[in-house]
Amino acid sequence: MSxxxxxxxxxxxxxxxxxxxxxxxxxxxxxAICFDTEFKELYAYARKQHHAFLSAGxxxxxxxxxxxxxxxxxxxxxxxxxxxxxxxxxxxVISYMMNNKEYKYNLFSMLSFPIVKGVKTYKAFTCxxxxxxxxxxxGYLKLKESYRYMPEDIGKELTEYLWYEGxxxxxxxxxxxxxxxxxxxxxxxxxxxxxSLMRLFERAFMNLRFF
Length: 211
Fold this sequence. Notes:
- The protein is of the alpha+beta class and 211 residues long.
- The protein has helices at 15-24, 64-67, 84-98, 107-116, 127-138, 151-157, 187-204, and strands spanning 2-10, 30-34, 42-49, 52-61, 74-83, 104-105, 124-125, 162-167.
């Protein structure tokens, strides 16, 4: 039995996203794995709270994160055929990472990418690095290591699997609520930010291995 999985490359609307596109010259700054065409099961390495820039990891993204602003949201979506075994493996990886607090957003790789083209950090991923990690395991990406991929690099290797290109609003029938993501930036989130940054610095100065 075959299954479908979708790779979503998008042009998100945050200040950081706009800065990344301006610096790199890329059209798309975000990458996610999705299990349906209504985007109800969309997973990516991203912030866990809108104002908590450093408290990031693998999250189940709501569609509101993409469509909060009433403007066009360009996306490229790729449809991949996978086996039942591969499908279950992706599910297991997502569940494991979401339930393991050691997995962080690879902030150093994101900040240094324009200069050194990615930094490999133990149990840490950028959004595109995670998608590339999954696709390399599935055999879809082969040209370089996961941490070297930007969203548009992924698209270049998946050209033949392009399913949709255009405004995401044309595909979404309803928008979710996301009270956790848009909640108040409390002292608790400040401590989470600080802890995440400390953990990343610890890993940066160690002889680290990859997941």
